[in-house]
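User: Structure please.
Assistant: Input sequence and predicted structure:
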Amino acid sequence: MDIREIVITGNPVLHRPCARVEHIDDHLKELVQDMFATMELAPGVGLAASQVGVDLSLFVYDWVDDDGIQHRGVAINPTLLLEPPPIGPLDDDEELEGCLSVPGERFPLRRSDRVTLTATNLDGNEFTIHAEGWLARIFQHEFDHVLGVLYVDRLVEPHHTEAREAIHQVGWGVPGLSWLPGRDHLEG
């Protein structure tokens, strides 16, 4: 198991839809193990293959809810059905989101409260999860990565401008930038 570098916004692999996974083999299983180890050290609750520079339609997630239940898995070639998001002003605390590919920045983003994820697991079996709350947010965030969309791309004003300025100020938004969990001590 290796810790992989996490690419930062501006890397082309983050900004285009990912290629479909055609075969589940030992190489893919090793990638998934590396992604779990990288996500844990980062630390994060989700990580898409594109975030470690791999153009494949998959993500991993690992989150423990308020009842102590662990939600951990891999979603290969995911699809996501969303209920309409709630209407009203953003809650700057409850809807705050961050991303390991935009490390250290957090902005509020409206997401749907309920989603249905359908994907394939590492055994090649299709599964469906009906998620709500924070798990639904994790699935939406990671599915966006599969589509080539970062959460900062979805922000509304004034947060969109704030995010763009923060990214510009630290010199991100260009190809070739990454960080290594455990070495660079960044948060996302």
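The CA atoms of residues 155 and 161 lie 9 Å apart.
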